[in-house]
Amino acid sequence: MDRPLLEQYLVWVKRLLAGDLGQSLWTNRPAAQDIAARFPVTVTLSLLSILISLLVALPVGILAALRQDTAGDYTARSFAIGALSIPNFWLATLIVVLPSFYFNWAPPIGNFVALGQDPLGSLAQFVLPAICLGITQAGVILRMTRGMMLEVLRQDYVRTAWAKGLGSRVVVLRHALRNAMIPIVTVIGGQMPFYVGGSIVMEHIFGLPGLGSFVLEAISRRDYPVIQAVNLFVALLVILSNLLVDVSYGALDPRVRQHE
Asked: What's the predicted TM-score (pTM) here?
């Protein structure tokens, strides 16, 4: 601390490049060690949330596009608007409070079981927070899926596929959906910060020992090295997710590879 700020910064960058994220002021352990211990919980919650978002948004968005301006389409659009409008912490609070109030049942909170000890019991603890986070983020993906499918279904090659007598599944999945996937995948990659940020709230409400609860504890203790290390780690995850999205373009559309 007695060195000039520029020298302190250069020393910090040098240690960062060597994998040294600093040391916790509270536990006196390396921040990287604590992050490695908490990261599996957060990544499990995020992946389950993404899976739930896709399982809800893709089929509903496709059906809404195929049944444009019908009751099903209006229902899907209303669901998307509702999902975008409902805060995930409010939905999580309802899921925790209402069953305990009306049915005398409460989700397992505070007694976390590691995945290696009891895989089924551990995954059961992620179901409710993953549903809360996945449903609230599914609205964006649903609206993009519906919009892109409507645009692609009007293209000449899709009309030609229908005219050739191809089955509905082949036309929709192989010809229409595949050509509509690039903007959808872009939206999914852009939602990664929201999944990570939402996991902070979900972990706090449902008592999951992940990076979200870890950084909240660090904020309350003013453990600045840990806060800085977690922010850097999350930023790296977002960058890597965007890189994976860019790489997936070539797999979804071979014309991208030919253009490159």
From this structure: 0.83
